From TrEMBL:
It is a multi-pass membrane protein. Residues 33-109 form the Ion transport domain. The keyword Coiled coil applies. This is Ion transport domain-containing protein. It is found in: Membrane. One of its GO terms (molecular function) is monoatomic ion channel activity. The chain crosses the membrane at residues 74-102. Keywords: Coiled coil, Membrane, Transmembrane, Transmembrane helix. Gene3D superfamilies: 1.10.287.70. It comes from Rhizophagus irregularis (strain DAOM 181602 / DAOM 197198 / MUCL 43194) (Arbuscular mycorrhizal fungus).
Length: 231
């Protein structure tokens, strides 16, 4: 900009030097202006303004040094608003989301799963064949106790694909029946079974009522016949 009153003109933002008279007064007639460069006002060009905003995010406010906060109150308000919403609010929000994500993955099951994978790699790639064939180290069957609630949680996690297994475990139908695992399919089946049972009971009641009505009609007919004979 060539306007003298343009506050954003790099020449108006550049450092100015004035002469001092021999009597100690400052001369207002002669002024030396430092030659401005592209970094004098980064907001004068759109690409450099993006760089200035990035510098503000990193904590570098040097792009605002040519401006005075007292003479530019709007810029001061915008700077405070920008730093509050970007640095304080958004950063704390991201930290909170990160903590939630860490809590979701910081579980003992994940640790045990990672440990099992490391042990499996050691057994496969760092042991000799005769070591892997030792029954004392690798028995055919391993028996251990586990609470039923933990089995239910594990089966639910496997069914809902919330676990990561290179070789997923085989869960037999008998095991599911033993732990009495309730799923939506089982609930649907129980509802259907209840409706069937209710229908069967209603049919039986109707049949019994019909049989009783037939018996009552037969008795009424016999009574009427006996009355007619008496007459």
């Amino acid at each position: 900009s060539n306007s003298i009153n343009d506050d954003n003109d790099p020449r108006n933002l550049a450092t100015k030097y004035k002469f001092v008279n021999p009597d100690g007064t400052i001369s207002n007639t002669t002024t030396i202006i430092q030659d401005p460069d592209s970094n004098t006002n980064l907001f004068n060009w759109f690409p450099t303004s993006l760089l200035a905003v990035y510098n503000l995010l990193t904590g570098d406010s040097g792009s605002l040094s040519p401006f005075t906060y007292r003479e530019n109150p709007i810029m001061t308000i915008l700077l405070v608003t920008f730093t509050f919403f970007t640095v304080i609010y958004l950063m704390n929000l991201f930290i909170g989301l990160l903590n939630l994500a860490i809590d979701d993955y910081n579980k003992e099951e994940e640790y045990l799963l990672q440990k099992a994978q490391i042990i499996m790699e050691i057994e496969l790639f760092y042991m000799l064949p005769w070591q892997r064939n030792k029954k004392e180290w690798f028995p055919d069957w391993i028996y251990y106790d586990i609470p039923v609630t933990e089995i239910r949680k594990l089966i639910n996690a496997i069914d809902n694909e919330q676990t990561v297994f290179t070789y997923p475990p085989i869960i037999s139908k008998r095991l599911r029946e033993l732990v009495v695992l309730t799923t939506n399919d089982n609930k649907k089946q129980t509802k259907e079974e209840l409706t069937r049972e209710l229908k069967e009971k209603m049919n039986k009641i109707e049949q019994k009522m019909e049989e009783k009505m037939d018996k009552i009609e037969q008795k009424m007919e016999s009574i009427m016949k006996s009355l007619s004979k008496i007459k």
